[in-house]
Give the backbone structure.
Amino acid sequence: RMVPQGEKYSLLRGVGQDHPLDGWFHLRKWWYVGNTVAIPRLDIPSLNMQDGGAGFKTNFLEIADTCTIWPSLLAMAATWDSSLVRQFGEALGREFKGKGA
């Protein structure tokens, strides 16, 4: 299927943050750090993205006590234990998936 240029750009830009001219970015309530728009005609869902490599990054106090702080990735690499790193990745993935990201 042909994808118009505007739809392609909409996947790169993301949604969910306000960008005031005189201030810093403001994340809208209950949005993720990054969201993309859905393109239903192509069966492309909205993606919910996070950027917390050491755990699910939250900006809202209502869910602050539901997040895990994980070991640093540098500490994980320093173990040279691929089994441990895999367990870490799987657990981190479960947490993010459980929160919809």
User: Anything to note?
Assistant: The radius of gyration is 17 Å. Helices lie at 5-13, 73-78, 82-98. DSSP finds three helices and four strands in the chain.
